[in-house]
Write a structure and sequence with these properties.
Structural class: mainly alpha
Distance between the termini: 27 Å
Shape: elongated
Strand content: under 5%
Radius of gyration: 20 Å
Number of strands: 0
Helix content: over 70%
Length: about 150
């Protein structure tokens, strides 16, 4: 059987590897340093680390998807104004909405590409440390080696 404490430890190590990759992306210029995307991805790691004992899936992914699929109140409000008061702001509202949607899509691309890259990297690292054996109870995990390799 899998030891819950060991599984939580491996999840925490995995998320720390993801965090390091995010920082590498920030320092390498792939992810803008002061952007909301960078800040939110790092925040999602903190959320994930708070829930390493939770068996309901990847908490950082759930956090990210909740953010990306949430409604945008400003855009919704502007669309409401455009639909109900088109004579007040002709063409202005649609231009603003277009810019806001474009900005949001750019943010989503930054977050999703960084998420995929960082998690792919972390999966490879974890597999290298644990090995290809699917049973954790037979695997020799060396925490000191994992910490040094990150």
């Amino acid at each position: 059987a899998i030891v819950p404490e060991l599984l939580a430890y491996v999840r925490a190590i995995y998320l720390e590897i993801v965090r390091v990759k995010y920082w590498q992306n920030i320092e390498g210029g792939k992810l803008p340093r002061l952007s909301y995307s960078a800040q939110f991805l790092l925040y999602s790691i903190d959320v994930g680390l708070d829930k390493v004992n939770d068996d309901r899936g990847a908490p950082d992914w759930i956090c990210l998807m909740t953010e990306l699929t949430s409604t945008r109140p400003i855009i919704s409000g502007l669309l409401f104004v455009e639909e109900n008061l088109p004579f007040c702001f002709p063409n202005t509202v649609s231009g603003i909405v277009g810019k806001l949607e474009s900005r949001w899509e750019k943010r989503a691309v930054y977050m999703l590409t960084s998420f995929i890259e960082a998690h792919s990297h972390a999966q490879k690292k974890i597999h290298a440390f644990i090995g290809n054996d699917s049973s954790l109870e037979e695997t020799d995990i060396k925490p000191e080696k994992m910490a040094m390799e990150i």
